[in-house]
Automatic annotation (TrEMBL):
Residue span(s) of domain Conserved hypothetical protein CHP02679 N terminus: 53-259
InterPro entries in the record: CHP02679 (IPR013495), CHP02679_N (IPR024466), DUF2399 (IPR024465)
DUF2399 domain: residues covered: 275-427
Name of the protein in its database record: TIGR02679 family protein
Coiled coil: none
The species this protein was found in: Streptomyces purpureus
Length: 434
């Protein structure tokens, strides 16, 4: 047995290259007995806390067996009194002198219970592990700089940490999310489950409720600017903004007098509105793109145009609220084939927000949808049916910054339906009014 040891302070950890062997059988008989578990645990606690193994430790109500074990350890009676007190320097000296643990008490306890990591070291190692967990985002941002702000939020808000719980799980999660976002937005659009199977190895990897779905959808919104929301319909359209289709049939858009398929041509000849599904628009989009396509927010406008103008109405599309996946697919297709858009919506914060969301996806010019038009609408409103007060959260109007200021100043909303006669007049013979 190697008894080589230096003159280290009691309880000091030996240098790695000078560590001597511990006589484990003797150590277990002397210090590793059940009656001294309390003593070993006190030493372990000090090692974890990074405290020196000096001074006394006490046991308030020792058993006779615990007193006898201390007496065997120190080769003397531990003293009287109700409690049991042991000086750690004395234990360290016994272990070194006997050759059981030439490197002292710290080495002995490590031999009995395994390596003990000091709390400060454990904390530093944990922080380093969490830093490594987020490295997939670093490589993603190098390839997709437009996701830098999103990646910074993921690091800061703790969502990935809550979803993954451990550094290893978070690293795995972010690796999968980064792989998905590298290929988005998908063009042409693809099935969400097929995309997940191809990129992530499971058709269900992006199902609702999975951590991968939560973070990937967040990244898609950062890429596409899709507005905040909630609910199944919102999630479907948010996925679709990135070219991933959850449901090709339930996402629809309302239109009048579009042409370019046999069905659309027949309906346009009749002047009848039609509901187009996302499935139809992906598989057979219109082959004809009119020079100008008009867009409204509310179905009442489109229905009135069909009633009043029939086949003579120029191509008109109705959003029915926030742009659906089908509406965006149709508008992007038409824009890509040369159509220009004119847009009108409600003069309220919700309407302006819808208009802004659309403008981030396709370009359009206002159709009687400026500050001047809003003030005119207020001036000519019927006093018997006054407009309602404006409610909701203000938003910007980048197509006409004065419009948001005008709404905030007046505090009155004007629904699109109140402008119906004026809008129909434009559709009968489109003016150059901006």
């Amino acid at each position: 047995m190697d008894l080589t040891h230096g003159h280290a302070a009691p309880g000091a950890a030996p240098e790695r290259g000078a560590r001597a062997k511990v006589d484990l059988p003797r150590l277990r008989r002397l210090l590793g007995v059940p009656e001294l578990e309390w003593l070993v645990e006190r030493v372990r606690g000090r090692l974890v806390a990074g405290q020196p193994l000096t001074g006394a430790v006490s046991l308030a109500t020792p058993t006779p067996g615990q007193r006898s074990a201390v007496e065997r350890l120190l080769a003397r009676a531990p003293g009287g009194g109700r409690s049991l007190t042991v000086r750690l320097e004395a234990v360290d000296a016994v272990l070194r002198r006997s050759g059981i643990s030439p490197d002292g008490l710290a080495a002995a306890v490590t031999a009995l219970i395994g390596p003990v990591t000091p709390l400060a070291q454990a904390k530093a190692e944990e922080e380093a592990a969490w830093d490594r967990a987020y490295t997939p985002l670093d490589s993603l941002v190098r390839e997709r700089p437009e996701l830098a702000a999103w990646a910074a939020r993921v690091r800061a808000d703790g969502l990935a940490r809550r979803l993954g719980r451990t550094p290893h799980s978070v690293h795995t999660l972010l690796t999968a999310v980064s792989a998905a976002l590298r290929e988005l937005p998908a063009d042409p659009a693809v099935s969400l489950s097929a995309f997940a199977a191809r990129v992530l190895g499971s058709a269900h990897a992006l199902d609702d409720g999975t951590p991968e779905a939560t973070l990937t959808l967040s990244g898609i919104r950062a890429l596409t600017g899709f507005a905040d929301g909630s609910g199944a319909e919102w999630r479907r359209d948010a996925w679709a903004s990135g070219g991933l289709l959850r449901d090709e049939l339930s996402s629809t858009v309302l239109s009048l007098n579009l042409r370019g398929t046999p069905a659309l041509d027949w309906l346009a000849d009749e002047g009848e509105p039609t509901v187009l599904t996302l499935r139809q628009l992906i598989r057979r989009p219109p082959s004809v793109a009119a020079p100008v396509v008009w867009i409204c927010e509310n179905p009442t406008v489109l229905a009135a145009a069909a009633d009043a103008l029939g086949p003579a109405c120029p191509p008109l599309i109705c959003l029915q609220g926030q742009p659906s996946a089908a509406a965006l697919a149709l508008l992007r297709h038409l824009h890509g084939n040369g159509s220009a858009f004119r847009y009108h919506g409600d003069f309220d914060w919700g309407g302006l927000r819808i208009a802004g969301a659309l403008l981030r996806r396709v370009p359009w010019r206002p159709w009687r949808y400026t500050a001047t038009d809003y003030r005119r609408a207020l001036a000519v409103s019927d006093p018997e049916f006054p407009p309602r007060p404006l409610t909701g959260v203000p938003t910007r109007t980048p197509w006409d910054p004065d419009l948001a200021e005008a709404l905030a100043e007046a505090g009155i909303r004007v629904e699109e339906e109140r402008e119906l006669d004026l809008l129909l007049s434009d559709l009968r013979g489109p003016s150059l009014h901006a």
